[in-house]
């Protein structure tokens, strides 16, 4: 019995020692809303991703799968992961820790009668000037992908 109580106490003590990363590791997000039909948003995301020379590496249709499991009225939720290996190599040569921002990711979901499209941006205020410049070059592309998908 005592042995069963030790693990939860140990985990609590261990987690209380964890500290958050520096502010430069906070991930900012870019989000837009649209009344455009959801399937059109997904199709436009695929087009915009390809037009920016990225390849889709994964697409999770979370909402669809939950509905298939029996939650009939569950809304749409999708995540699309994408990457450009040349850009990936560049950023990882600048900062191996940037792997935490990869692959690029965009989400789309339905909420309150609208479709929300959201992506994480790279932080532009780290202690690494080259990484900041890479982020300043990359973030507008990510925003353009989201904006394109939301256009009526």
Automatic annotation (TrEMBL):
Determine the domain of life of the protein's source.
Bacteria
Q: Where is the DUF302 domain?
A: 63-119
Q: Which keywords accompany this UniProt record?
A: Signal
- Signal peptide segment: 1-20
Which InterPro entries does this UniProt record tie to the protein?
A: DUF302, TT1751-like_sf
Q: What is this protein called?
A: DUF302 domain-containing protein
Q: What is the lineage of its organism?
A: Bacteria, Pseudomonadati, Pseudomonadota, Gammaproteobacteria, Methylococcales
